[in-house]
Amino acid sequence: MKLGLQLGYWSAQPPTNHAELVAAAEEAEFDTVFTAEAWGSDAFTPLAWWGRQTARMRLGTSVVQLSARTPTACAMASLTLDHLSGGRHLLGLGVSGPQVVEGWYGQRFPKPLARTREYIDIIRQVWARQAPVTSPGPHYPLPLSGEGTTGLGKALKPIVHPLRADIPIMLGAEGPKNIALAAEICDGWLPIFY
The domain that contains 13 carries what CATH number? Predict the structure, then answer.
């Protein structure tokens, strides 16, 4: 059996005991330490901090919200953390809900399953680094073109070569269709609120 330490997201102030908890989990041979984000602290920064203080434990997001960053920005943060940690990162994603997406991020909440599929496809393209990243959309068209653009956007590959193209992706999913999507396109399921 593998054990993970879920430290969640911060409340009003940064927690004062997380460094000690992470050190104890590493010493007790826990497999993974997880952190989350909502509408306050982000998930990647604490993992980078704890990654520097650990040598073995994997560093997982549980979860990063799709609307918090574009798929390419999420892929960049993940590949950077994976490099800094020597290949110990795993990416947990979640679509969140309309209250947060529309209320905090100021974005529409259309078709969460289709958005998730498109988002993960783009992330995997970035990590594979086999060709410039493209997506026909409709949620994340790359490169962006059409009305309101300069027309100068072009498909790009990441400058940084990922340490590995197969960083595990896990999906925080609740409903039966979202759980089925996790089984179809992800490496695992995070049954956080199930």
Answer: 3.20.20.30
